[in-house]
């Protein structure tokens, strides 16, 4: 357990220090959401209707953006070799890194949601619903995203390739995340149904993500 | 890439792997460390702890120093101590031993290449591992650093450790030599 | 040539530090007194016949909005100083100004949206002016992120200077957006052709507050520049410390 907490604490520290990417993710989220009305037009009623979708897309792109370097940085400086050789199973190390990434880069997105809800003319109840679905859904984005981040190490390419690999994987999360928020705002489906599926997706990703990432990292080291 | 190699190292012994650039010294070390899969043959460890694999009982010192520039020297070392686990000794003491104690609270970004190498050597000392796999361990080290490295390695061998080092420069200690790749 | 550069490098920040050490207490006192007078006068100002007491948000909102743009102009001059004249204090000034400018812009947005709630019935309206201030805020944050992303300040300085100058194009758009797009937002009413339309009982407190906030900026900026210079000294001392061989 000490090993995993040490890894989580190290990753969070690096994300918050100079050169770390934690807050840039929030800034990106903010920028994407601010850009939307320029494309859609400043119609407040329309923005309120599209609000949950805009927030979810923004969060999806922002969490993807910061995932890019998750394993690449450790690979480039040689840390990944040592992590793979250690007595901690690589699957658990991957899960710890994903958790650290979610705490440093995912939670700030959720904290920023109420402010952005204000910009999109969402009322307090709707904003709360979106924030709640993001809280439950963004771990799924991170934990499936690490598969792409691990593949990026294997293939020695990051950036856009990562986006192409990971975005299709996150479609179910997007569907049920937006469905749950809209169910809470306007109905007619009850909030519970899509929300439970969203939670289930997160739970499944906790298992699948680390195993797939570890498997691809094992083959990727050479 | 490498074939027809047959060698053994026993407890308390150092093996110096030599050969021209590109002859596969690094690949050999990485294969022993488990990063490259064997396509034939085997690497066996006699003795040691039975539940652990060879890689889990080994230290690997590669070309890259596995340091995070944003973290302080002590934070870097303490992380590896906590993460690698096992039998550990005091991180501050090890920093003193390798001669970078004065920089313990400074970001690792400020260290020179030689100091980064010294910090990596401190990692070998902080966590006890019987097998050391060292890739060009003395590169970037000044002469004082090379002496320090030789002393540290000698202590390790005296405690029954095993060292496999890929090297161009002489290690400064008694070592069995394994020459690979050359046709001479 | 190199000798003179080194000499100015050493001399200028040192002279700056000793000069500001003497000036800052006076500036702080002047700012505090003027802010107190301005706030007192604002509290005494009559309610607006249309807007009621909410009009008093103006006394905070307008100075902040002015400063949000003014700070960017200060940074643009500093950026020119970095790129053209290579003044050693220029990038210190630019870096120190960014968070302060971001804070003023943020306050302008917050007070604006609090003012907008009773006026428009919503906290946020995508009108041209508010939106361009929001973009200005994002640009401040981006600039701060740029400074934070690079550990060595002298390397970040040039990139930040270029970005600042490009961003300066945004300033006139904000200033004149009210005239360009006819929107819900109040038309500019202080500096308008044919003199101010604002009543004297509002105008005087507003001007006092504007001067007080400008002084506040100067005070904070000088203090932040001192911090930045000292931070860089600590950094180079640390690097010297790291390269020192163990005895």
Describe the protein in words.
The complex is a heterotrimer of chains A (222), B (184) and C (247). Chain A is built from ten helices and no strands. Chain A has helices at residues 2-16, 22-40, 44-67, 72-76, 79-85, 90-119, 124-155, 160-166, 171-185, 192-220. The mean pLDDT of chain A is 87. Chain B is an alpha/beta fold. The relative contact order of chain B is 0.24. In chain C, 79% of the residues lie in helices and 0% in strands. Chain C is built from seven helices and no strands. The longest helix of chain C has 44 residues, at 200-243. Mean pLDDT of chain C is 79; it is low at 184-196.
Number of strands of chain A: 0
What is the straight-line distance between the termini of chain A?
Answer: 28 Å
- Portion of residues in helices of chain C? over 70%
The mean pLDDT of chain A is 87
Radius of gyration over C-alpha positions of chain C, nearest whole angstrom: 21 Å
Number of domains of chain A: 1
Q: Provide mean pLDDT of chain C, rounded.
A: 79
The largest interface is: A-B, 27 and 29 residues
Alpha-beta content class of chain A: mainly alpha
Largest sheet of chain A, in brief, is: none
Total count of helical runs of at least 4 residues of chain C = 7
- Poorly predicted residue ranges of chain A: none
Major sheet characteristics of chain C: none
User: How large is the radius of gyration of chain A?
Assistant: 18 Å
Broad shape of chain C: globular
For the terminal residues of chain C, how far apart are their CA atoms?
37 Å
Strand content of chain A: under 5%
Write the element-wise H/E pattern of chain A from the N-terminal end onward. Answer: HHHHHHHHHH
Overall body shape of chain A:
elongated
Parts with pLDDT < 50 across at least 5 consecutive residues of chain C: 184-196
């Amino acid at each position: 357990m000490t090993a995993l907490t040490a890894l989580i604490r190290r990753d969070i520290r690096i994300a918050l220090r100079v050169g770390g990417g934690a807050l840039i993710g929030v800034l990106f989220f903010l920028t994407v959401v601010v850009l939307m009305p320029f494309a859609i037009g400043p119609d407040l009623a329309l923005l309120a209707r599209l609000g949950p979708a805009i927030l979810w897309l923004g969060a999806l792109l922002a969490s993807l953006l910061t995932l890019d370097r998750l394993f690449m940085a450790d690979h480039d400086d040689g840390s990944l070799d040592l992590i793979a050789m250690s007595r901690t199973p690589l699957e658990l190390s991957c899960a710890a890194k994903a958790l650290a990434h979610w705490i440093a880069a995912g939670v700030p997105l959720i904290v920023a949601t109420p402010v952005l809800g204000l910009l999109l003319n969402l009322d307090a109840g709707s904003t709360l619903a979106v924030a709640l679905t993001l809280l439950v859904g963004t771990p799924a984005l991170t934990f499936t995203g690490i598969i792409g981040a691990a593949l990026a190490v294997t293939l020695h390419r990051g950036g856009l390739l990562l986006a192409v690999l990971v975005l299709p994987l996150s479609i179910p999360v997007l569907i049920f995340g937006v469905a749950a928020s809209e169910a809470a705002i306007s109905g007619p489906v009850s909030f519970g149904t899509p929300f439970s599926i969203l939670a289930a997706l997160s739970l499944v990703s906790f298992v699948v993500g680390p195993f797939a990432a570890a498997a691809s990292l094992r083959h990727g080291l050479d | 890439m490498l074939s027809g190699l047959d060698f053994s190292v026993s407890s308390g012994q150092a093996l110096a792997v030599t050969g021209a650039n590109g002859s596969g010294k690094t690949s050999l070390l990485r294969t022993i460390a488990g990063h490259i899969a064997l396509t034939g043959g085997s690497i066996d460890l006699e003795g040691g702890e039975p539940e652990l694999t060879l890689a889990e009982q080994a230290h690997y010192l590669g070309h890259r120093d596995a340091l995070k520039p944003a973290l302080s020297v002590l934070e870097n070392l303490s992380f590896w101590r906590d993460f690698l686990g096992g039998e550990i000794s005091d991180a501050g003491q090890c920093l003193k031993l390798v001669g970078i104690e004065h920089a313990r609270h400074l970001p690792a970004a400020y260290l020179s290449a030689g100091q980064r190498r010294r910090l990596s050597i401190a990692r070998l000392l902080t966590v006890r591992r019987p097998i050391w796999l060292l890739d060009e361990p003395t590169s970037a080290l000044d002469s004082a650093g090379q002496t320090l490295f030789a002393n540290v390695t000698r202590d390790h061998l005296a405690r029954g450790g095993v060292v496999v080092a890929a090297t161009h420069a002489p290690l400064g200690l008694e070592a069995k030599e394994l020459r690979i790749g050359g046709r001479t | 040539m190199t000798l003179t550069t080194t000499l100015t490098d050493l001399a200028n920040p040192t002279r700056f530090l000793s000069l500001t050490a003497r000036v800052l207490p006076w500036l702080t006192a002047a700012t505090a007194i003027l802010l107190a007078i301005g706030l007192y006068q604002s509290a005494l100002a009559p309610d607006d016949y249309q807007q009621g007491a909410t009009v008093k948000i103006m006394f905070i909102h307008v100075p902040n909005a002015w400063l949000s743009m003014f700070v960017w102009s200060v940074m643009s001059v500093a950026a020119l100083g970095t790129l053209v004249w290579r003044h050693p204090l220029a990038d210190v000034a630019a870096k120190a100004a960014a968070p302060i400018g971001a804070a003023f812009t943020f306050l302008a947005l917050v007070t604006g949206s609090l003012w907008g709630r009773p006026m428009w019935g919503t906290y946020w309206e995508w009108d041209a002016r508010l939106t361009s201030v929001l973009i200005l805020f994002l640009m401040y944050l981006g600039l701060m992120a740029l400074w934070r992303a690079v550990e060595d300040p002298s390397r970040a300085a040039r990139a930040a200077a270029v970005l600042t100058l490009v961003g300066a194009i945004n300033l006139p758009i904000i200033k004149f957006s009210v005239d360009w797009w006819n929107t819900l937002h109040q038309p500019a009413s202080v500096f308008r052709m044919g003199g101010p339309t604002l009543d004297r009982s509002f105008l005087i407190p507003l001007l006092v507050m504007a001067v007080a906030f400008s002084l506040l900026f100067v005070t904070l900026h000088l203090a932040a520049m001192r911090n930045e210079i000292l931070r860089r000294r600590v950094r180079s001392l640390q690097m010297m410390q790291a390269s020192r061989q163990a005895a």
